[in-house]
Design a protein that fits this description.
The structure is a homodimer. By secondary structure, chain A is an alpha/beta fold. The first copy, chain A, contains 7 helices and 7 strands. The longest helix of chain A is centred in the last third of the chain and has 13 residues. The complex binds the ligand Nc1ncnc2c1ncn2[C@@H]1O[C@@H]2COP(=O)(O)O[C@H]3[C@@H](O)[C@H](n4cnc5c(N)ncnc54)O[C@@H]3COP(=O)(O)O[C@H]2[C@H]1O (2 copies). One copy of the ligand Nc1ncnc2c1ncn2[C@@H]1O[C@@H]2COP(=O)(O)O[C@H]3[C@@H](O)[C@H](n4cnc5c(N)ncnc54)O[C@@H]3COP(=O)(O)O[C@H]2[C@H]1O sits at the interface of chains A and B.
């Protein structure tokens, strides 16, 4: 395998830019987030604020977990609970000029990792697919 | 990168065995599948029949899509619709002695691929994480 494909590159060269990434706002209600997740088909997406700063991730599983009561599914909570009450704030983050090796280590346990700039503004995401696409090309040679 | 890590191995050497894989049955109702998906935290899981043959995959997104009506979420359908009406039957499959390169090509676009034997009985799953774990080890050397 040719190691140059991975070893002298930065996160920026693998980035899915923010304008292509579905996201929701911290202040949205859960019903809006559920609609965006269901319609886009993504299992988890970033949560930003109005100034485009990254706050966490929300997934369909987190929303279902939040409304699953002991007796029944409490669907009315979809209209009252907000994304910021349910999202995961403890997420790994990458910078654009981080070495790709740092990204590869993080995607072992995360389907994707959010990328931000030094001021915390959202730049896009680094995904498992972008790495696997290049590994597949390498292995075929 | 040392290509031996990938190039002379079979799918069996990367397998998550079936006894460790959460699954549901074709005849289960959607409410049962939603509970298994939410409680295990997996976004998608295999669908088997009572004789352990593989029929497809079901995801939380597929279930939400099935009950999302024009006006409101039709939650009563969770108790009436069955997994087999909603699951994705058109899925890639691998055999235990397939070359790992065939698996790597498939996981570029699929988070995991189900593995079955020649008679169609479910053996386990081949996941992106198992490949990325080894790639990460390689890249660190
Ligand atoms: N509309 C689509 N078109 C083509 N392929 C699709 C697709 N939706 C899903 N996939 C495939 O399924 C994989 C898992 O998607 P999932 O939504 O679970 O997990 C996704 C999702 O949570 C997030 N993601 C990816 N692209 C996104 C985007 N444009 N906006 C928001 N989140 C995204 O990153 C995770 C990993 O993405 P990755 O590309 O590695 O892996 C994706 C991709 O290979
Ligand atoms: N309980 C847990 N413990 C540790 N890590 C966890 C975890 N649940 C999820 N993850 C991490 O998140 C990734 C995506 O999980 P997801 O459920 O979207 O997507 C999963 C899920 O749909 C399925 N899957 C994995 N293990 C499974 C199992 N034991 N039973 C059923 N389905 C499984 O394969 C997909 C890819 O799995 P992969 O391991 O590559 O990637 C997993 C893993 O890195």
């Amino acid at each position: 395998l040719d190691s140059k494909e991975f070893l002298d590159k930065t996160i920026a060269q693998f980035l899915i830019p923010s304008d292509k990434v579905a996201h929701v706002q911290v202040g949205n209600h859960l019903d809006h987030a559920l609609l965006v997740l269901t319609k886009t088909g993504y299992s988890a997406i970033p949560v930003l604020d109005t100034s485009y700063k990254l706050h966490g991730l929300i997934s369909i599983t987190m929303i279902m977990d939040a409304i699953l009561g002991l007796e029944r599914i409490e669907f009315e909570r979809l209209e009252t609970m907000k994304v910021e009450e349910v999202m995961n704030k403890d997420i790994p983050r990458l910078l654009l000029d981080d070495h790709v090796m740092k990204g590869i280590e993080l995607i072992v346990n995360h389907p994707f990792v959010c990328v931000e700039n030094e001021n915390g503004y959202f730049e896009g995401i680094f995904t498992r697919r972008e790495i696997l696409k290049r590994l597949n090309k390498q292995v075929r040679r």
